[in-house]
Predict the structure.
Amino acid sequence: PQTIYRKDYTPPSFLVDSVELGFDLDPARTVVASRIQMRHNPASTSRSIELHGEHIELVLVRLNGKVLKPSQYKLTAGMLTIPKAPDEVTLDIETVLAPQDNTSLSGLYVSNHNFFTQCEAEGFRRITFFPDRPDVMAKYTVMLRADKDNYPVLLSNGNLIEEGDLGDGRHYAKWEDPFKKPSYLFALVAARLVCQEERYTLKSGREVLLQVWVEDGNLDKTDYAMQSLKNSIRWDEERFGLELDLDRFMIVAVGDFNMGAMENKGLNIFNTKYVLANARVATDVDYAGIEAVVGHEYFHNWTGNRVTCRDWFQLSLKEGLTVFRDQEFSADMIGTDTGRAVTRIDQVRTLRQAQFPEDAGPMAHPVRPDSFVEINNFYTVTIYEKGAEVVRMYQTLVGRDGFRKGMDLYFERHDGQAVQCDDFRAAMADANGRDFSQFERWYSQAGTPVVTASTRYDAASRTFELTLAQSCPATPGQPKKLPFHIPVTVGLLAADGRDLPLHVDGVVSNGAASVVLELTQASQTFRFTNVTELPVPSLLRDFSAPVVLEYDYTDEELLHLFRHDSDPVNRWEAGQRLAMERLLKLTGAVAAGEHLALDDTFIEAQRALLADDTLDPAFRELALILPSETIIAERMAQVDPQAIHAARQFMRRTIAAALKPELLAQYHANQTPGEYSPDALSAGKRALKNLALSYLLIAPGEQELALAQQQFDGAGNMTDRAAALGALIHSGSPSHAQAALASFYADFENEALVVDKWFAMQAAAPSTDVQAVRQLMTHPAFTLKNPNRARSLIFNFTNGNPSQFHAADGSGYAFWAEQVIALDALNPQVAARLARSMDRWRRYVPALQSHMRDALEKVAGQASLSNDVMEVVSKALA
Ligand code: B3K
Ligand code: ZN
């Protein structure tokens, strides 16, 4: 496979002004006719027209009215090249394809007898020959023709300008998108669907039509998506002054989809998982996911569609920024300070669980990568979540108003253009009179920086010195790193727990409770003056930068922060540090066969927190969750998954035994009777209550089992039902678990998304070994062809069940290899995601490592592997 480099970028040789597409839709044989108006790009020295095309049959190509003979063009595996073209060109191209055979779900495909498209990143070339690159922006007109009975609904981007009957049982619809767009934003849907629709008035008074399209029978699950869409529209108007630019905005749900959703102009196509919800089938987490993804795709309309990426190396320009926007949207929707902090803590957990490991592994890449083999492998937590952190740091450095000024300037300069990450950085700098040249390293250097803090207090002069030193580990292709520009938000706690007023030499702080220090050197000392007592430093408040912060806290200091820090994120963080220290010690003790013990100090701190009714239940729940096995593993030089699992289980068991009365009390105090509502307060109560339940079911007696059974049987919503089922599965009482699983399946077998949960819960249970997973694969409801289903069972086992996946005999890895190979034949994008489960193989104890290498080599040795999987496994083995 070929590696593509950012440094090799050249402008397109021809620009496209307009595209007319005609589709004769048929599952076995779809004919696509396109007419493209092109003109030579003065910025290019090449006179050759280059049109991408894959997995399609070329029937005919005409240039300015004349049919081209095969001698007049070159057709290779991925490209149609027409040399020596004149300045102005009209191309007519006809292609033929078979959507029903397209199992990759990229391009035009069939899902449950309906047609859908997915064109990002390079799917449009599976439909017709075209300069399929994001810096070619054109206006599209689309004519759809299809059988009327089977495909009553015909949708594409923009506005419906004509529709009618063709006789012969077929009908047509013509759509026109008034905005220029890159080909990756093209979409069509031809389907038997129904919709919930609503007219909505924008702040400006203009009326727009909003639609949510789903399969018949699901109209009872579209309210929340519609509400989230309206909230998104309002939020973007208020926070960023950005208005919906179309008269019509559609969301369409599809059951077979490679990722979450897609921001096609005016026609967002969504995985059903991020559309369908009602109390019976969806959990609080599902509701939050719908709000976030509906927001995310809607916000792309400006950050992604109106201003798009010059090339795919700039992917984070739209993704990092749009994730940041959806994060802020979700936080603003809750509205309270602790609510905001709870969303922030979730973001930090995702970074540590997934992004930090990626950044330390064989697929580590900068937020703006320098090379790739397969672009679909780079829709990563680094591009998305670390990218969002990079955007967030601008806001931390220039403030909310400054950030808004930067956004305004960005749109003023670049609306309608395809630009680079550097253009965004320049807008932020210029709008705020700041120098962000060093900040560029956040885009160019991979790896998670480590910031090491040390302090010195001088009582006589009342000064407190904070020294911050930074370093960044080597990553593939980047042995040495230069210092980053890191905002470190700091507060100092007095003995009574309050924030001391801050005065820092050379920094405007005015006695504030928190100050943003800018660390730009390898090491820097900040001097706080007028510090009346020895403080406890609260460092990296609100997780002000995506770094690992090291400071030698004593237990007393951490307990002080855990009890008093005014910054809830750091309050949570202090608890995580207390837990992590103990988990690492316990893991060592397990491995050494030593006696395990947990100190009372820690247990008492947990007890106090659990029962502190002044704190938001959602916050208490997060503060009580111990660092995950994956996060613990990242802290160890050599990973022994069984020891980590045993240590964490011991800690959970000990806490459960010690806090039983408090857990029971919280279980009862946080019931949410009455009609289900997914609002943050109710969801937080359920989360705390269900965490209590899971603790109570670790080593349950008859009473606890009855409690869970009662909740399972009587639950008025899926959050409580699924939590009770999970608790029963983990209770170590197979009879209860089996009966509950059977009744759950019987109740929900016609709800695909709930069946996914049923597989997922079993896949992640420590009692489920690889043999049991193989058994589940023979269940009639299982199929590798549906990505949600494959993820629910296979991915949840490899990524969510470490103690079984890492079985000593290597059987988990052999299973992984089989499934990667099987999936690759169907859907390379999904297969390559699964391939990533082995990323960190070099860090495991030697016995496991050798099994993992065998499995990786088995996959790498397959003939006819996709580029997608090949890139992942060869980087892992490199
Ligand atoms: N932009 C799409 C992702 C496309 C992934 C292609 N492999 C969804 C999103 O980020 O909003
Ligand atoms: Zn996105």
